[in-house]
Amino acid sequence: MKKAWKLALGAAMALALVTGCSGNETEGSGKKQLVVSTWGLSQDVWEQEVKIPFEEKFDCELVLEIGGTNERYTKLANNPNASVDIVELSQSAAANGYEAGLFESIDYSKIPNATSLIEPAAKLAEDGFGAAYTVNSIGIIYNPDAVGFEINDWSDLWNPALEGKISIPDITTTFGPAMVYVANDFANGDIEADQGEAAFKALEELKSNIVKTYAKSSDLANMFASGEIAVAVVGDFGIPTIEQAQPNVKFVVPASGTYANFNTVDINKNSQNKELAYEYVNWRLSQELQSTTAVSLNEAPTNKDVVLTEDVAQNKTYGEVAENAKVINYSFVNPLLNNWIDQWNRIVNR
């Protein structure tokens, strides 16, 4: 009996640690808990830089729920009354959450640091979405020796001289929809009016230049190293991997601008601890924290008051590039995505 009782008690304690109890005090500590759902990448560093300083400042305990974007989003969507207070998600997944009514319509007057957001992140906030705490974006990476001319603009991708030399992100990846927007710009289309029709005609024109699409930046590294490709469209976070495989490559962000992808911090609409949740959002947007995480977690800042050294800023969506980045409307994209995937597979991946 004693053994069974101890096992039951241990299981209950483990469950309490994982699920937390939002809005309630931590048993035995007298501290409030805030349950944060996040990725868990470099978790030890994240805890040192994000978690512990917040706990000390607000005399509380952050309880973490770790997992991939889809896993965590689906879990909350299936149980909106879960104890989770904060959800850190990709921009695309967060847009689905707002559409489904899962997240608090954030009152930015309660977040002083929101006044320091770069313009694209501020626009996301104005449109009623979660607070963007880090950003990445796409550009063109190419091997000048293999191409033989300079690439400066998105339209250069359609140059016939690049036949059979390009790889672009697959439609199902983070920057797949951004590639549709790039094609729309080349065609001078109105993507929301024609729902991508002009973009897919432009992608059909680009088809002869595309060797293959890719799912991971490591795939690109292998293709550059083998000489299979000479040009690719890539998120800036993938540059170091490619440079290790092919040191001759050059990365270009066209002067016409790039397309950004944000990670956002969102508040569960059913959170019982919204006051502390707002403090967490404000902390995530602070100059103090973002100056630190830009170095330790490689998170490009969305707070425009953050100043990075040249070395730290390298390969990040920062400064003028960040201020001029275009925002993808995922409330428009997400309902169309299955249709776009079908068109993409017929036109680009066939």
Explain the overall architecture.
The chain is α/β, with parallel strands linked by helices and 350 residues long. Helix content is 44%, strand content 17%. Strands 1, 2, 3, 4, 5, 6, 7, 8, 9 and 10 form a ten-stranded mixed beta sheet that branches. The longest helix is centred in the N-terminal third of the chain and has 18 residues. The N and C termini lie far apart (64 Å). The N terminus is likely disordered.
Please tell me how large the radius of gyration is: 22 Å
Major sheet attributes: 10 strands, mixed
* Mean pLDDT level: 91
- H-E string: HEHEHEHHEHEHHHEHEHEEHHHHEH
Instruction: Report the β-strand fraction as a percent range.
Output: 15-25%
Secondary structure topology:
Elements: H1 2-19, E1 32-38, H2 43-58, E2 60-66, H3 69-78, E3 86-90, H4 91-99, H5 119-126, E4 131-142, H6 144-147, E5 166-169, H7 176-186, H8 191-194, H9 197-206, E6 210-214, H10 217-226, E7 231-235, H11 239-245, E8 250-252, E9 259-267, H12 274-284, H13 287-296, H14 310-313, H15 320-323, E10 326-327, H16 330-347
Parallel strand pairs: 1-2, 1-3, 5-6, 5-7, 9-10
Antiparallel strand pairs: 3-9, 4-7, 4-8, 4-9
Defining traits:
350 residues, alpha/beta
Short overview:
The chain has 350 residues and is of the alpha/beta class.
